[in-house]
Each structure stands twice: as C-alpha cells, then as structure tokens.
Amino acid sequence: MRQEFNQHGGVAIIRAKDFAPTEVSRPVPRVGVVSNPRSHRNNGGSRPTELPEAVVFKREPSSRNELVSIITQFANEGVELIVIDGGDGTVRDVLSVAHMVYRGALPRVAVIPSGKTNALAFDLALPAHWSLGDAIRAHMENRVADRAPVHIHWNNNALPDQLGFIFGLGVFSRATLLAQRVHRKGMFNAIAVAMTVLMALLKSLFGGPRNSWRRGDMARVSRDGVEIFAERVYLMLASTLRQMPVGLRPFGRIRDGLKFLTVKAPPRALHRNFLAVIKGRESPALEADGYIRRDADKVYLSLDRGFILDGEQFPGGNLIISRGRPIQFVVPA
After folding, report:
1. What is the CA radius of gyration of the chain?
2. Low pLDDT (below 50) residues in the chain
3. Whole-prediction pTM value?
4. Number of domains into which the chain is organized
5. What residues are paired with 154 via a beta bridge?
6. Among 244, 221, 90, which Cα is nearest to 166's?
7. 3-class DSSP state for residue 73?
8. For a surface tag, which of 11, 217, 240, 261 has the fewest beta carbons within 10 Å of its beta carbon?
9. Residue 183 burial (CB count, 10 A)
10. Angstrom distances, CA of residue 214 to CA of 170, 229, 249, 301
11. How far is residue 262's CA from residue 238's CA, in Å, rounded to a whole number?
C-alpha cells in the first residue's frame, strides 16, 4: 500500500489486509512521526512510503511550542515509536522536548536521515534509502541499538535542557559557521564535513597569534568539585557517538561513553599533530603538546562564549555536561 499524508500531516490507520496476509495476531504499533519539511532531502514536503500495519500520527511542527504540543499528544496517545524525519538538528530538537515531556525513559526512536548533516544516522549505520516503513518493521522485529545522548543542563535552569550528540566550542564554533557556507554551495554530509575540516585547518595553520581561529575560547572545567583547568582552549569536542563521519576519530579508539577532546590554545605543532588526532592515534607526545583526551560521565563547564550542539549555537554560562539516559534507536538488520 502506498500511503501519502497531506501537507500538514495527519493520522493514518494502515491495516494488514491492505498490504499482506496477517501471519500472527499482534498489537498494532502506534507511531508518531515528526517531519522537518525544510530538511535537505525532504524538499519542502513529506515523502510517501510503503507502510506495514500501524497507527501513524504524522506532524510537521513550525515552532518549538508546537513541537511540545505534538510530543505531549504522542505521550497521551501511547506512541511507542517516535520517528524523526530530518537531520541532526531536528533529532536534537525532538529528543530535547521529549526529555522534558516524558520525564524519564523515552519511547523507541527512529531516524530518517534527511538533513544536511546526519552524524547520528552514520553512527547507527542507517542506509540512505531508510524509510518510515523500514523503521516500523525494525521496531516490530525489536532491532534496536542503544545510544546515550550528550545532556546539556544550564545551572539555575536558565534554558531548557538539550540532548544532542556532538558538542563543541572554540574552533568548532567557527567551523560550524563555515559549514553553513559550504552547505550553500550544495555540499552536504561527508563531503561537507571534509571540506569544513580542511578549510578550518588552513585558517588555523596560516593565522598569526591574533587570529581568532587560533586564539580559542576561555573555559573553566571542574569535575567532582575539583577544578581541572581554567584557560583558553583552541578546541573542545565531546560526543557519545561511537563512530564519526568520514572516518574521523578525534577521541581515539572506538568505544561507548561520553568522550572529550580538548586542545589548548594556541594549538602547538598543529601541522604535525593534526593527522594524528583525527586518525585516532594515541601517544604521550600528543598530550604533552596540549591535545588531551578524556572520558567522563559528567563535567561542570563555565563558558564566556557560546557553544555548538548538533549544528546550532547556544549561549554559554555555567553548564553541566553529562552522559544522558540511553535511548533505544531502531536499526537495520
């Protein structure tokens, strides 16, 4: 059965007799779809798909308030699978609101990678043709992989908590603005990542001591009540992903957990250390030059400037960065 939704979404009840004989009587899954029609591959509208038996609520929010209402409706309707049709930024927005609404364990989540950047989809090994129907079938067959998000909390609840997968500041913030220019030139995903890394490297290598790319941002980091350092960092990067796009391995060996890479400013011997860092090599010489890798479940961070989480800039301040509660994502066989 070829199922299409109208422009603003809706509810579809797809029965087994519409597409295949039933094999075993089982509860019909209730699925909530959040679609970003502005995502790169969506081209301003929803993509039709072949659907198995399910009750599907499809929505296209135009604001955060509307997204809160939608996720609240999903919770009230007993939705057991939230499907996010968009890129990393849409995933961040939906998970952050779901964290606020559910106040505990989230339902299973599926990602339809349709954005300009899809780092989480890469880590989950989702194919480019992965569809809503594929996600529902994976859910029904209990094919899941756990991923814990990076959880950002502002002290005094200055802003709503955010859940994402790639956190960065310093040169990472500047590179993200650069990536937006790359996207406007029609380059996305792996090509965009490679071009952005290359351009950021060139700007850092050939800049003088006053170059903003090399000067970095001020950061104060503490853990378990003990200050670890308070100085300018060229780069701070954190993620819970196991694998990064285009084979980048800034955190070293592949592993679970909340991983950090901190590079002190200005970066020492960048021309010599750059490849070693992005290829995941580990040596005492790197740490001696100020390229530091650490794992931690929670750190306290004080920032004078903002940071980037999954492609969007957020204000700094006094933050807690922690490994969030694991989320079950549906995945291919």
Report:
1. 21
2. 1-8, 15-24, 40, 43-48
3. 0.87
4. 2
5. 319
6. 244
7. helix
8. 11
9. 18
10. 9, 19, 21, 21
11. 9
